[in-house]
Amino acid sequence: MKKFIALAMALVMCLALFAGCGQESNTEPSTPAESGTPESGTPAEGASFKFGVVGPLTGENAIYGNAVANGVQIAVEEINAAGGINGYQVEVSPQDDVSDGETSVNAYNNLMDWGMQVLIGPVTTGPAISVSTEVYNDRIFALTPSASSPDVVAGKDNMFQMCFSDPNQGSGAATYMGSNMPDAKVAVIYRNDDQYSQGIRDTFVAEAENQNLEVVYEGTFTVDTQADFSVQLTAAQSAGADVIFLPIYYQPASVILAQADAMGYEPTFFGVDGMDGILTMPNFDLSLAEGVMVLTPFSADATDEKTVNFVTEYNERFGETPNQFAADGYDCVYALKQAIEAAGCTPDMSYEDICTAMIEQFTSMTFDGLTGTGMTWSTAGEVSKLPLAVVIQDGVYVSAENAK
Amino acid sequence: MGKKIKSAANRAPRLSKAAKIDYATYLGVILAFAVVTVLGSQGMLTRSFQGQLVPICCYIVMAISLNLTVGVLGELSLGHAGFMSVGAFSGIVAAMSFQASIPSEPVRLVIALCVGAACAAVTGLIVGVPVLRLRGDYLAIVTLAFGEIIKELINCLIVGHDENGLHVIFNFDGSKTISDLGLTENGIEIIKGAQGATGTDTIASFTAGFILIMITLVIVLNLVRSRSGRAIMALRDNRIAAESVGINVTKYKLMAFVTSAALAGAAGALYGLNFSNLGASKFNFNTSILILVFVVLGGLGKIWGSIIAATVLTILPEALRGFEDYRMLVYAIVLILVMLATNSPQAKAVFSRSVGGVKGIFACKGNKAKGGAANG
Amino acid sequence: MEFLSYLISGVSLGSVYAIIALGYTMVYGIAKMLNFAHGDVIMVGGYISLLAMTSLGLPWPVAVILAMVVCTVLGVVIEGLAYRPLRAAPSLAVLITAIGVSYFLQNAAQLLWGASPRAYTPIVSGALSVGRLSISYVSLMTIAVCIIVMIALTVFTGKSKMGKAMRACSEDKGAAQLMGINVNRTISLTFAIGSALAAVAGVLLCSFNTSLMPTTGSMPGIKAFTAAVFGGIGSIPGAFLGGILLGVIEAMAKAYISTQLANSIVFAVLIIMLLVRPAGLLGKFVPEKV
To answer: Virtual CA dihedral for A119, A122, A127, A129, nearest 10 degrees?
Structure first.
């Protein structure tokens, strides 16, 4: 009988929890916006635009989500300090998704409860695809700073990208190699349980064939085997590779650079946007990255005023140099600002109406940001901007043309 | 709670009590479903909560099925997510392949769940035969190993479907891509290797999840209360004694293990069809551990405990969003505190005085023998 | 020639697994619990030594000692707060608590030190080259440390009074208590030693891997657990042998079969081995008595 009572109590508690969830909704999600990001500005006279950010703020990929959230925060505060968008302040609520599809959808739903009007994110590719279906069904406008797979935007007219897509990067890298190092023997080392890495590798290899590049070796690794690359490097060396293409994030790349150096193997390493950040990795031995080529839209060492201001501000506030993800997040906010101002949207509009207006603006406008100038968007949602090939010399990016 | 029923003499009253608990469990699930459905139709539930309904159903089924292995059979499995993975991807393939020929979503969902369950059952049989010969921590590590192997194999799968049927490539050396499938124009890409299943039609629904939970309950509770179930529990409590009275060890162990795998497969299929993107890496070691946490917190062998623990622990991280960066830290602390509160004698005394209910819900009392057996 | 260099990579990687597995197997052998938080104590050791070397500018031997001290304290505190109250609880409850501790350490580390990976400067650099073959000093050092630790642990548990008490606890806690052994103190000591070893392993792992983040410890932790089971969990020489073999199998699988499935092949070998020798390579198979 006692067990029966316990069970009954359990049920009551369970129901209380359900009810609790129902009640909390109105009050709870607004707390993070006030307590967590106190700088996000006090809503002027009630009405304000509500931007949601979804990305991994904890866990393995936390660095990308945090970079985006930080970049967004800086942009929003700048805008709020300068009088907001169309005279309205902007509120922003970053939500954690641990780079997991299920949690990402939860985070998105949480933001919808909060009253989000535009979504910035999700930051990583897999979760972005999961959320994009919801975004499409709900008719809310979403701009992802960094989820680069074409699947993220394919078939969804209200989902846009700020970064270049994987095929763009893969074929861009192959084209660059084809015209600048035609005799190269290329080895590819990529992470085959990662959508981003595999996606770039596929398009790279396809385009390499057209460019008559010789791919002599392909090595893979997974998240479980990223401690040691000596086998892949030895195999690449024996295959005679003089260029190693690394469509991976910078953390494993830093290990590859160190281990190749320890082996005395000195090919040209060629990275893509995920490589960005390697120079600012705390305590990284910069000499290892000497001569590494990177295809990136953003360079923290650029001397234009916008970049310098952003980098200084970011450094002061977060104590580190921003990477490309932070710049993408920053650009997202300003692109939205430009579009909202052009469309004359106000916070009292429903998110569906804002979405319609945004789609119209984004497919027609030209935007200049930190990660490129003259950016335009196709109706598919892909951005067109030029990947910039840079070489790392003495610990800084130098444009590949200038380096020669 | 104080009554300790161990001897055979008390078996008759225990059974009737067990039956009561079983009926209460069914009733509770139906009631919860009714309440949630009514509240949902009144628009009183948040989106955040509604979005979690299907995953909660999947996790409940996962927890019940793992409880069959860990709680009832008494073998620690660290690779349960592997079966979920097999079910999820085979279910997705089934649902997407019939997209053109069967327009009705519920019918496709049922087919997907059945295919998922069947594939996972076959995998369970393949894994179970060698694994169940081992014992204790060795068995645990081998289930972990199988879970990781399944994950890597699925990572290499490329599957597409067109009017000529199903195309499958096993991407052994990493050089194949979706274009090597040679799909016709109308073909659909279902699983793209590491990029996982992308563009899946999300046909899972809360009602389907509820029905799956009910079916799972019927299967598991009937199995546990049957003659076979008693044989399985006898194996858990004392394998040697059970063997000596003529219980076929392999047969009953496999029976529990394969049933558990099949149910996990069905749960996986439902889960897979709830998200438009799913990668094999979702079903890693951490997911297996997550399910195990549900089972242990809910109480070994206690089916209703698993249901509640899975529900509460799925909602908890979302409910903790207010804590921002400290969210997962708080989750970890809650986990440790609950384990201490329910298992340490001193803490239990304190807790039972202050919060009477907690003990009832997360009761692990009387499980010492079972827990010991699980690792023995 | 390539074969030899693959072999060297395998042994280098294996030695890292081995040193982690030694700590794992030590704790398992005495406390009979799978300490899933071991990998995260390794990560803490890595961070402490890195901070000591970079922020405080200490020379590496001092940094290693500091890391050992911090990890020892951490290990004893974890044991006292989280595991000791559960001494009589079912072992699954302890397992879940260990998982909770592991989550806690990872998230605490992220809050304290940030999520971004940091580069770790190896404590010794360079490599010994013979012809085209080269083996890094870090690997040589890891192997040497492994052997020293293995011998020291074997002697300690075999000869010293505390070591004998540990073995007694491992055989039968109740009987040990009756013989006047303080079981709680003995288990705390085991955790202290295990955690100090974790700090050493952390320094060596990070020197090998040259990078460090809050999740650094978890995968090597699981691999080391596998290695410990491979060699026969609870057996000190078994952990060493298991670690080295695991590393070699992984490297050979990557080189000659498939880099995609390297991990699967390692696990498949483990499964086959356990089916042939159910208690691991050097483990004792104890038949159950009725």
So the answer is: 60
CB B111, CB B77: distance < 8 Å? no
Q: Is A126 on the interface with B (CB under 8 A)?
A: yes
Cα–Cα distance, A141 to C155 (Å, whole number): 67
Shortest alpha-carbon distance between residue A232 and chain B (Å): 13
Spell out the domain ranges in chain C: 2-126+134-276
- Partners of residue A85 on adjacent β-strands: A88
Please check whether residue B292 lies inside any domain of the structure. Answer: no
Q: Please give the DSSP secondary-structure letter assigned to residue B301.
A: T
> With pLDDT > 70 as the criterion, what percentage of chain B qualifies?
88
Taking CB atoms and an 8 Å limit, are C210 and A62 in contact across chains? Answer: no
**Segments forming the whole domain that contains residue B274:** 18-33+44-284
Residue of A nearest to C139 (CA): A262
How far away is chain A from the Cα of C255, in angstroms, using its nearest Cα? 6
C-beta atoms of B35 and A18 within 8 A: yes
CATH of C2-126+134-276 given 1.20.58, 3.40.50, 1.10.3470, 1.10.8 = 1.10.3470
Tell me what the mean pLDDT of segment A2-10 comes to: 44
> Where residue A403 falls among pLDDT bands split at 50, 70, 90?
low
Q: How many CB pairs under 8 A join B and C?
A: 152
Give, in order, the Cα–Cα distances in Å from B116 to each of A186, B158, B208, B291: 41, 17, 14, 19
CA B272 to chain centre: 13
- Residue B328 pLDDT more than 60? yes
Answer whether residue B105 is part of any domain: yes
- The ipTM (two decimal places) reads 0.88
Say if CB C92 and CB B297 are below 8 A apart: no
Is pLDDT at B366 greater than 70 in this prediction? no
Please check whether residue A82 touches C, CB under 8 A: no
Q: Count Cβ neighbours within 10 Å for each residue of A180-204 and write b for 16 or more, e otherwise.
A: ebeebbbbbbbbbbbbbbbbbbbbb
Domains and CATH numbers, chain A: 37-164+307-384 (3.40.50.2300), 167-296 (3.40.50.2300)
All residues of chain C having their beta carbon less than 8 Å from the beta carbon of residue A219 are: 254, 259
Output the furthest CA–CA distance in chain C (Å, rounded): 61
**What strands lie across the sheet with A118-120, from one edge to the other?**
A89-96, A48-55, A118-120, A141-144, A159-161
Is C111's CB within 8 Å of B347's CB?
no
